[in-house]
Amino acid sequence: PSYRSVFFIHYSCDKFDEGTQIYRLGIYAKDEMQEFCGDNEAEFIEAYCRRVTQLCAEGLIPIHWNQNTPVYGAAHIRSRYKELTGRDIELQYTNCINLSGWLIEKYGDDYISHPRLDKLAELNNLSGKSTEQGSRTFFSNRLILLSKIYCLELNNKLKTAANPLPRLSSKSTNKAKEFPAFLIHQQREK
User: Fold this and answer.
1) Residues 79, 42 contacting (CB under 8 angstroms)
2) The pTM is what?
3) Can you give the chain as a three-state secondary structure string?
4) Which residues, listed in sequence order, are joined to residue 29 by a DSSP beta bridge?
5) 150-189 CB burial, b ≥16 within 10 A, e <16
6) What is the pLDDT of residues 34-92, one digit of tens each?
7) Closest C-alpha among 22, 17, 15, 18 to residue 83
8) Is 34 exposed, middle or buried (0-12, 13-18, 19+ CB in 10 A)?
9) Closest to 122 (Cα-Cα) out of 88, 161, 83
10) How far apart are CA 123 and CA 160, in angstroms?
């Protein structure tokens, strides 16, 4: 979808094996960043859920980076809210796009090494990695980084570590080496 049809979501929480606390939730939509954080975790989760629901109702599509597991994503946010309040909360990422998974589908699993988000930032000369993890600046940069990667991809300018396929030319002296690359290219096109 076009850039104006999407919004970006990101959040920071405890390390998966250490706890369930959520420190900050963020949305980047319509060239505006909103952060949800503070002393009352349940209240800022509620505010975040309301805003996501509103944006989805407007027809915007959420884009995230791997927020599709019980320990990271909508399921974790709902679970954490229930843990804090004993109540359920509605949070659905309607028609969401997992940008990480989408890039893997398009370019293959080896399109960039791990950690993928950081490596894409480096390769494409984007900020997002340079500040200390856990800080507000780091969080904000990560959210904007998702939007920059998406924009680059929309404009066919995203650089990946996957080697570009050799172009077939009549001047080539070794056609045997080009044929496997051509087959790989055809498979990717399918």
Assistant:
1) no
2) 0.80
3) CCHHHEEEEEEEECCCCCCCCEEEEEEEECCEEEEECCCCHHHHHHHHHHHHHHHHHCCCEEEECCCEECCEEHHHHHHHHHHHHCCCCCCCCCCCEEHHHHHHHHHCCCCCCCCHHHHHHHHCCCCCCCCCCCCHHHHHHHHHHHHHHHHHHHCCCCCCCCCCCCCCCCCCCCHHHHHHHHHHHHHHHC
4) 32
5) beebeeeebebeeeeeeeeeeeeeeeeeeeeeeeeeeeee
6) 999 999 999 999 999 999 999 999 999 999 999 999 999 999 999 999 999 999 999 99
7) 22
8) middle
9) 161
10) 7
| Amino acid at residue number 110 | D
